[in-house]
Amino acid sequence: MIQSGKLLSGVGAVGALLVLGAAPAQAEVSAETQFVFNTFSFLIHGVLVMWMAAGFAMLESGLVRTKNTATICLKNIALYSVAGLLYYIIGYSLMYTDVAGYIGSFSLFYNSSEAELALINAEDATAELIAPVVGNGYSVMSDWFFQMVFVATAASIVSGTLAERIKIWPFMIFIVALTGLIYPIQGSWTWGGGWLSELGFSDFAGSTIVHSVGGWAALTGAIILGARRGKYGADGRVRVLPGANLPLATLGTFILWFGWFGFNGGSQLALGSALDAAAIAIVYVNTNLAAAAGVVAAMALTQILYKKIDLTMALNGAIAGLVSITAGPDVQNHLYAIVIGAIGGGLVVVTIPLLDRLRIDDVVGAIPAHLVAGIWGTLAVGIFGSGSLGTQIVGILAIGAFVTVTSAVLWLALKVTLGIRVSDEEEEMGLDKAELGMEAYPEFGHGSQTI
Amino acid sequence: MIQSGKLLSGVGAVGALLVLGAAPAQAEVSAETQFVFNTFSFLIHGVLVMWMAAGFAMLESGLVRTKNTATICLKNIALYSVAGLLYYIIGYSLMYTDVAGYIGSFSLFYNSSEAELALINAEDATAELIAPVVGNGYSVMSDWFFQMVFVATAASIVSGTLAERIKIWPFMIFIVALTGLIYPIQGSWTWGGGWLSELGFSDFAGSTIVHSVGGWAALTGAIILGARRGKYGADGRVRVLPGANLPLATLGTFILWFGWFGFNGGSQLALGSALDAAAIAIVYVNTNLAAAAGVVAAMALTQILYKKIDLTMALNGAIAGLVSITAGPDVQNHLYAIVIGAIGGGLVVVTIPLLDRLRIDDVVGAIPAHLVAGIWGTLAVGIFGSGSLGTQIVGILAIGAFVTVTSAVLWLALKVTLGIRVSDEEEEMGLDKAELGMEAYPEFGHGSQTI
Amino acid sequence: MIQSGKLLSGVGAVGALLVLGAAPAQAEVSAETQFVFNTFSFLIHGVLVMWMAAGFAMLESGLVRTKNTATICLKNIALYSVAGLLYYIIGYSLMYTDVAGYIGSFSLFYNSSEAELALINAEDATAELIAPVVGNGYSVMSDWFFQMVFVATAASIVSGTLAERIKIWPFMIFIVALTGLIYPIQGSWTWGGGWLSELGFSDFAGSTIVHSVGGWAALTGAIILGARRGKYGADGRVRVLPGANLPLATLGTFILWFGWFGFNGGSQLALGSALDAAAIAIVYVNTNLAAAAGVVAAMALTQILYKKIDLTMALNGAIAGLVSITAGPDVQNHLYAIVIGAIGGGLVVVTIPLLDRLRIDDVVGAIPAHLVAGIWGTLAVGIFGSGSLGTQIVGILAIGAFVTVTSAVLWLALKVTLGIRVSDEEEEMGLDKAELGMEAYPEFGHGSQTI
After folding, report:
1. Would residue B87 be called left, alpha or beta, if left means φ above 0 and alpha means ψ between -120 and 50 degrees?
2. Cβ neighbours of residue A11 under 8 Å, at least 6 residues apart?
3. How far, in Å, CA of B387 to CA of A425, rounded?
4. CA B156 to CA B60: how far, in whole Å?
5. Which of C62, A311, C384, A435 is nearest to B441 (CA)?
6. Which end of chain B is more exposed for a tag (fewer CB within 10 A), N or C?
7. Residues in B touching A36 (Cβ below 8 Å)
8. For residue A13, which residues of chain C lie inside 8 Å, CB to CB?
9. Residues of chain C found within 8 Å of residue A254, distances taken between Cβ atoms
């Protein structure tokens, strides 16, 4: 992601080093070494973010009922696959390649640079072949890989909210549009160097650009799709439909936390200087402190409000803490990170009953954890960080409006054409039998809950 | 793994840099920095591959029935352990140390180089001590570690196919021979610089050398061991014996996908130059696209053929896509990676019923995903890549024949001596009670299926 | 962790390189490149150790009964969170900042260095700004991050032993004291440069300083808390209370093994020279061989003693092998690593029934795997490595006495004030319903065991 401010600081560091002719040569990082560091940072941090797809799969598998578990597993591996393919076919180019005049220069099927291919295919790696490659600062496809796993994250957020009643294929069509068009277009506004970037909107690793985008798409879908049967009684009572496998949900949360070091750490976009390495270390520490504070805040608040701790609230507290710090994990006072994460965790606890009062059925709590905390984290940059609060609000609203409108049009179009919801009988039976003809746990079952 | 072509290009790059005396010093990667990069690449990528052992364990745990789950967990952690020990005692030396004349110079218990130990033990790290270490290009034991996790992968493939009826100790004896002798001997033919390497056989990260080897050993074992009781009725009907825990199988597939970036990315065998870093980025991207295409192809094909999507087919589609691209993940046109992966995923869908028609009982689908896709991927290098199709076929057949014959001899020897199959009563009771005296899920059970 | 011997060797290597004026510049690693390598090693290896928190969560989730599963999940994510917060607020400073005279210079809320913040905030990264940062050798907060995940590991060990009967909030208060005070104070004696370090006590990555500390705290707690109801009959019979989900326990063990490469590998504390990279490779190999030997030894011993293999013994064998090698994974003869790990695995098999005879109820086997193996591994440095056996014993006893006394005081204080144990009815009902008001697996249950 080309975050103008961030990338400039990186380039600045490189430039500064190249200028330091007087200093002894061994005090600096050579340009080619920087290239390797930056590329490796994209790849390794990108792999950690890829692993978050498994985190969402496990979190959602644990929080749905057994009769819908295989389907949510399928959706998660399918959406990660489709996101990668679409981002290759069109998404990345739409987001980063000459966004202003893309009709002319835009090309499908993003590929490596000619300079890199020439170097790789050469008999000898001459200085003339190496120079233009190194001049780019990092390998072209390593950046693609890192950006790709971000779009997949946005897509993963949607599946949890809409679980247990949405049809598979219409859902997949939505994911095609989200990852091929909606996400890249709004992403280009900031990370592609577009108008929000020029305005000074600041979103380090994507509280708004990734997490709120997934959250808005999920919220719009949840409203248009409607709640699960039996979730909200005619008498106004809310029925708890408990998740079937809480250790898996816990595992999913740990996976997300683990992967988030890649998500935020890699968003420094460079590793090849002391400045970048020190900045990434600060990002790691803040990421961890915010998540920890989110857990503790959610635990304390549920203890105070309900006289019991709730495991799923604690898990969502961790995620909300992570989402909250994502817009500004480079904050230099670590206490701020703790405050930001704690407020994020607290917001989850108060937002979940609010959604129920609005009869918006969010199966896994993705709207509080990703949308609400994403907005909070983006505002927090204006409060605790260097951004302007007004610009932050403009960015949040612009992206929110765009994603909500485009998602709504798409969800409605799917609703009137293919239909997006399974029949009442199928919902009762469970999507696993109805849509897949299989069971996730064929030998288990008949515990205290069979719903 | 010493892939002659690959390693030469890496060494070539190093050489080129050392020659560039005219270029400014800070434009290059110093030899010692290269050493660190290359070593770290082996270690970090190797750790990702190690994690694939957990992926196989979870995939197989999810696809067997509850009564055999603890046993498959045990086999997976045991085989990973035994593979590492055997590869240390004899395997690595057999594969890489003076293969031609190994009777004379071959030694058991592979160890670090004297140069490295001298450097580590010295009072001062003098230039004289550093030079011979750096001259090797990477740390000796980092390469050992990376190669070790590959042999463990080959061994992991076998356990899934033979699950639910094989005895533990005879299975472990087979793993001893596979990881100590069979794998290293055939591996030496290509990666050890042997006759297949001289012929020009091309297998970047082991579609044939790792995955088909595991697949052939599994196929041979499945035929000699026979199908599970009740799998194939006298009337020719095939009974579905569904896996007990599909979220675990999904987790296992995600783990494998995650680890595969280490498997293919690390097989560049170097990271210490712009060329190597850029090449690894291309490998990562192709690995991901092929897996994604495998998922989508398997989903689409099952929808068309059976009017339902099948989760386990989608999971095996991902694995088949990964196996398919493993022989040539450095292909420079990413569309080819998509095509290769999609065909791999499709092959799984058509091969699984074929095996059933032949009454070959492969519990987890390892033969389609690793053997069939492995062959396909190796052929694809001859079609889309730089290899010769004829040479690729020679390599596939030679390795297939060697592994099949040696495995068959060993399986038959075990069959007539110790016996390889539990009794009918034990199979009915489940291996967990029969072989371990425990249950994997003592408190669950009595769902719709109790078989 | 500032392990005097280790850190000096790293610094020595840096110093040596800077002195080598005669050698060609490109043969060395520049100081800033070293800084990036060292920092990145702390971060990536630290992330692997962070992931071990998930490993403990899964291991313990798999080994408790279903009625206590959600609670153990909550405790694990909560203790990881609290450990990070406390280590930030006070722990790290207590362990590493001017330990001798900390009353004067000690400060709460550890933060990045002024030099790093100045560099990050500067318009231009001038040589004057870079030099003091690079002079430190690594980023300040990367070291904090790496040390933080170690204290979390020590805390994780406690939760498993005390599962199924301890109250949540008193447990959390103990974790606050353990991670904020007890662990850092004893840690300062060796890694903070204190008296055990001056004495020559050698504990590379913490067999004693991390694992035995968690083990002593767990043992003390287990004695004061008492055994689970029904575990030990009046007639002296020991009742088996089997774990509910063995694949999760297997997954947890694989996660720990995976993360341990970060635990031991990162404890080299540097990556920026050929010496350090080669040393880390040796550490990785020994870590893997010891764990593998622990598995095989535990399998063989249970087969011999009980005529059956036990999966949980094999899993604890792996962990014991890992703990055993942690004090000296830099041993240069890999056969020693195998022997050390095998003895560790064997110790688990013989210690578990011993604890039962003493009626000390350790739900997951953490005392044998972390305390007994931790002591053994620390002694092994005196036997196979370079340490003195007498000094090793002094370190083991001093740390054991300190942790046991402080833990006992704290456990007893909590017992007489808040109470540490749930009521008999709550224990019968399960902590999930009693403390959280939820079920971990609401739809499963009623298998062969319902206890």
Report:
1. alpha
2. A137
3. 55
4. 10
5. C62
6. C
7. 29, 37, 271-274, 276-277
8. 125
9. 51, 53-54, 57, 77
DSSP sequence for C230-262: TTB-TTSPBPP---S-HHHHHHHHHHHHHHHHH
Beta bridge partners of B232: B238
Where residue A257 sits, what CATH number does that domain have?
A: 1.10.3430.10
Alpha carbon distance A1, A142 (integer Å): 11
Alpha helices by DSSP H, B136-232: 140-161, 168-177, 183-190, 195-199, 213-225
User: What is the spatial distance between Cα A38 and Cα A136, in angstroms, rounded to a whole number?
Assistant: 10
Confidence of residue A28 (pLDDT cuts 50, 70, 90): confident
DSSP character at residue A27 = G
A329, part of any domain: yes
Residues 141-160 of A with CB under 8 A from B: 141-142, 144-145, 148
Tell me: the pLDDT tens digits for B236-248?
899 999 999 999 9
B351 touches C at CB < 8 Å: no
Q: In one letter, which amino acid is B387?
A: G
Q: CB–CB of C247 and B17 under 8 A?
A: no
Residue A364 forms part of a structural domain? yes
DSSP conformational letter for A205: S
From residue C107, give the alpha-carbon distance in Å to each of C91, C99, C101. 10, 11, 12
Q: Count Cβ atoms within 10 A of the Cβ of residue A24 and give its class: 0-12 exposed, 13-18 middle, 19 or more buried.
A: middle
Q: Locate tokens 């007004």: which residue? A: A390
What is the greatest pairwise CA distance in chain A? 79
Helix/strand/coil for A308: coil
* Burial group, residue B413, by CB count within 10 angstroms (0-12, 13-18, 19+): middle
**Residue A274 near residue C34 (C-beta atoms within 8 A):** no
User: Among A29, C38, A36, which Cα is nearest to B280's?
Assistant: A36
pLDDT score at B207? 98
* Mean pLDDT of all residues belonging to chain B: 91
ipTM, two decimals, is 0.94
Helix (H), strand (E), coil (C) string for B351-395 = HHHHHHHCCCCCCCCHHHHHHHHHHHHHHHHHHHCCCCHHHHHHH
What total number of domains does chain C contain?
A: 1
Report if residue B17 sits inside a domain.
no
Residue A226 sits at φ, ψ, to 5 deg, of 85, 165
What residue has token string 């288990």?
Answer: A444
Task: Give the pLDDT confidence score for residue C448 in this predicted structure.
Answer: 53
> In chain C, what residues touch B40 (CB-CB under 8 Å)?
37, 271, 277
How far does the CA of residue B287 sit from the closest CA of chain C (Å)? 22
CB–CB of B18/C26 below 8 Å? yes
User: Model's pTM, two decimal places?
Assistant: 0.94
Q: What is the C-alpha separation between A180 and A268, in angstroms, rounded?
A: 25
Query: What is the distance of C-alpha B234 from the center of its chain?
Result: 36
| Most C CBs within 10 Å, among A58, A239, A288, to test the C interface | A288
Please state, in angstroms and rounded to a whole number, the distance separating the CA atoms of residues B55 and B77: 11
Asked if residue B21 is part of any domain, the answer here is no
CB contact under 8 A, B145 and C446: no
- Indicate the pLDDT class of residue B447, thresholds 50, 70 and 90: low
pLDDT at B223 exceeding the cut of 80: yes
Distance, CA of C319 to CA of C257 (rounded, Å): 7
Helices A274-306, A4-19: axis angle to 10 degrees equals 150
Q: Which residues contact C87 (CB under 8 A, 6 or more apart)?
A: C144, C147, C148, C151, C152, C179, C180, C184
Q: Name the token pair of B161.
A: 């196919």
CB B144 within 8 A of CB C284: no
Cα within 13 Å of Cα(B19), Cβ side = 10
| Domain that residue A179 falls in | 31-265+273-444
Q: B127-135 and C274-306 helices cross at what angle (nearest 10)?
A: 60
